[in-house]
Amino acid sequence: MNPTPRDYNKASVLDVVLSHAPLTRNKLIELTGLSKATVSRAVEELRSDGFVVDGGVDAVAGRGRPSTYLDVPETAGHVVGVSFGAVTTGVLVTDLRGREIGHVIVPTVEHNDDPAAGRWLVDLIAQTSASARGPLRQVVAALPAHVRDGAEVFRPADPMKIFSGRDLQRTVEKLVGAPVTFDSDANASLLQVLTDDASIHNAALFSVSSTLNFATCRDQELARGRTPAFGDIGSLSSGIDGRTLNGLLSTGGLVKFAREHGLDIERVEDLWLAPQDHRGRAETLKAFTTAVSTAVSIVAVTLDPESVYFVGRLHPLVDEVLPEVRKRLEQTLPAIPRITTVSQILGLSVARGAVQACLAKAHNRLRDGLLKARSQGPRQEQAAPAF
């Protein structure tokens, strides 16, 4: 049996409820463009499926019957966003409306193989999801790496080289028993930026931490290439002594450069504390400024973004050199995009972006599942929501 117009109407109502709840029936009718009778029928079916509950009353002044808010119950399921970084790992659990159920931020434990790392991640997910109700619908894990097809890891940060390939994604997915997608930390960060500011349409983002990662969007849609070469901006020349962009716009690369120029530092944060008049610090900032200018120039002339964002552990240094970067770009480009840094909560901000990806995937899967349910015949009664 093929889906009927009634099924598609129900799917449209589900889409809007998942994306906009809590909302009144009148608002639901407005957003779907469907008739009052059609919406009422779909709401009752979704209520029976376990995806809609009454969530309170809209206290409307004046005459008329108060409207009941429709909401998504916690029992409809939950999603998990993971920021699996070289230094810090964060796990954020929300329900299907994006309401936080719990989060945890811990130092990343060093592992020697994929199975051990997978079990560690899954244990963190289980601990953070302990109070969640309903099925686990989706996990998205963001890494400082390039990721193809949501599973295959390429060129991760040096401390995470053993995770190259697909084995880690397969391990996690098998252990959690739910769909698991991997993505880059840059993509997750850009998703969070887009969520925070819906006016952004075309943008680029550099994640400058343990490795240099890059993301871009067009009309608020993340751009994804066909090969791992897409977005590998870190392999391009920085314009300084044959060094790559990743060699100057990553924490490890910048520390190495600073040491070579006379700064005795262990961590990149020590660079902030070095004397302003130290020659080595001046040389390091000069090289860093050139690398930032080069990176922005590349995306400005090839992608024409409205805005360019910098996130990650090096963002304080980007703030320091931005006036000089803008000055250089104004001398070489006819127009420059808006360049800004975004402060992040280490281990949590990227996880929030991963949750946004989770919610989009889970909502689409539920809609598709509703339409496929028609061809599978009547469903058996069950405590958990359908689809």
From TrEMBL:
Residues 10-53 form the HTH marR-type domain. This is ROK family transcriptional regulator. Belongs to the ROK (NagC/XylR) family. Pfam families: MarR_2 (PF12802), ROK (PF00480).
